[in-house]
Design goal:
The complex is a heterodimer of chains A (217) and B (242). Chain A contains eight helices and no strands. Chain A is mainly alpha-helical. In chain B, the strands form two sheets. Chain B has a six-stranded mixed β-sheet with strand order 6-7-8-3-9-10, sandwiched between helices. The chains are: A mainly alpha (217), B alpha/beta (242).
Chain lengths: 217, 242
């Protein structure tokens, strides 16, 4: 029986790229969708606000694993069989991150003092100008650290994409284990990969938090 | 003298609390009206109603030809004519003094960047802060921040300026520098309504003093009215300040 070798390591490196790629899809897609939901959540229109709350509650109240199953099998039932795993996984993680990012960013937007809205309003700025020129630049400073923190969560959660057959780090580890059966070695290496990706981000998030706490608001 | 602002029988309550109880007064072009009174007398609320920051329950408010009480009020048109300065300055912390001032002229009046910058320099010079253009609000003292806030309003060339207890958060020295700017404005013919606790300033600069008590205009008249109060409440209020 062969043991853990450089070939396996290379395979894990390749899978790590997919983990990063899937994280990027989830982060960008979830960010765009989440931003729209965050805006809906604080909009003037009551139906829009309610719709956003319902969306957030449903997404946050559903395990990611179930969400992935629902999308993978749901799309198949809708008549598109042979859904590429990346689409199912990307869509599931996008929805998942949008539900959390929406709520994180809503909190950041609302933590900008109300008097800032008022001051901008009294200068005759339109609602969108108030948002884009006055509120969002301040909210972004507040949001940076928790957003990077959540990015780490996304990266770790991409491991669940293995259930729909997507080959990322965790799935690659399982595949190697199926052939050489050295679970402990393999998953230690896999864990190291995750750590190597996440640790710099966590550190960055902490340093951002420190900087933004003492710096300009 | 045509009225720039006229309030008539204005009522305003916050849920069960009646804050304004039939307020009526007028302010003419070029007049400086000082609204005084105890905390809770409704003076700040009255000021915020003039700028449609609060909606009123009853009565009419006309400001520079805008029917502020009308639900169909074009708020942005109103705000182009009316500037307001707040107790807590409310400068935008992520922008420099100059950028704070340039924002509205570029966004609302579509001024070009260079033109807005010239305008910012000009109004900053008027409040004596030409050399602070590139400073962020946190790098300025309270008095300087408040003068930038005044400059920011001035840059929109309002027909009416509202001041909501603008010196309440400042020590006497900083208060003095802000009041001087306001006095210069008044002398330049700006129509102003200020809610203030600075009795000496009200007496000296205001062409009209409005004493509010229990959500009503209790007594109003020229600045000299403070030396000869007609009602026991105003006598008491003025007396307690000495």
């Amino acid at each position: 029986m062969p043991s853990f070798s450089f070939v396996h390591f290379q395979f894990l490196c390749w899978a790590a790229l997919w983990t990063i790629g899937l994280s990027a899809i989830a982060f960008v897609g979830g960010g765009l969708l989440g931003f729209a939901v965050a805006l809906a959540r604080i909009s003037d229109s009551r139906p829009l606000r309610i719709a956003a709350v319902v969306y957030i509650q449903i997404v946050q109240g559903t395990p990611l694993l179930i969400l992935l199953f629902l999308i993978y099998f749901g799309i198949a039932i809708a008549g598109f069989n042979q859904v590429p795993a990346i689409i199912a996984a990307g869509a599931g993680l996008t929805i998942y991150s949008s539900g959390f990012l929406a709520e994180i960013w809503r909190g950041c937007i609302q933590s900008v003092p109300k008097t800032q809205w008022e001051a901008a309003e009294c200068l005759a700025l339109t609602r969108w100008q108030r948002m884009s020129r006055v509120i969002l630049p301040q909210a972004m400073r507040i949001a940076t650290a928790p957003t990077v923190g959540f990015l780490v969560q996304i990266i770790k959660n991409t491991s669940l994409a293995s259930v729909v057959g997507f080959i990322e780090l965790a799935q690659a580890g399982k595949l190697i284990n199926n052939s050489i059966f050295e679970p402990f070695t393999i998953f230690i290496v896999v864990a190291c990969f995750y750590f190597a990706i996440c640790f710099p981000l966590s550190t960055w998030s902490r340093s951002l938090e420190r900087k933004l706490n003492v710096g300009r608001r | 003298m045509s009225a720039v602002v006229s309030l008539s029988n204005v009522h305003k309550s916050f849920s069960a609390i009646r804050v304004l109880n039939g307020v009526s007064f007028e302010v003419g072009r070029g007049e400086v009206a000082a609204v005084i009174g105890q905390s809770g007398s409704g003076k700040s609320t009255a000021l915020r109603c003039i700028n449609a920051l609060e909606t009123i329950n009853q009565g009419t408010i006309e400001v520079c030809g805008h029917a502020v009480h009308d639900p169909k009020l074009d708020r942005r048109a109103l705000r182009r004519d009316v500037g307001i300065v707040f107790q807590s300055y409310n400068l935008f912390p992520h922008l420099t003094a100059e950028q704070n001032i340039m924002l509205a002229p570029t966004c609302v009046k579509s001024l070009s960047k260079p033109a807005a910058r010239d305008l910012a320099r000009e109004v900053l010079a008027r409040v004596g802060l030409a050399e602070k253009a590139d400073h962020y609000p946190e790098q300025l003292s309270g008095g300087q921040q408040q003068r930038v806030a005044i400059a920011r309003s001035l840059a929109m060339q309002p027909k009416l300026m509202l001041f909501d207890e603008v010196t309440s958060a400042l020590d006497p020295q900083l208060t003095g520098e802000v009041l001087k700017v306001m006095e210069d404005l008044a002398r330049g013919g700006m129509t102003m309504i200020l809610v203030t606790h600075e009795m000496a300033f009200a007496r000296k600069v205001a062409s009209k003093v409005i004493y509010m008590h229990q959500g009503k205009v209790w007594e109003s008249g020229p600045g000299a009215m403070l030396d000869n109060p007609q009602t026991p409440e105003l006598r008491n209020f003025v007396g307690s300040g000495l």
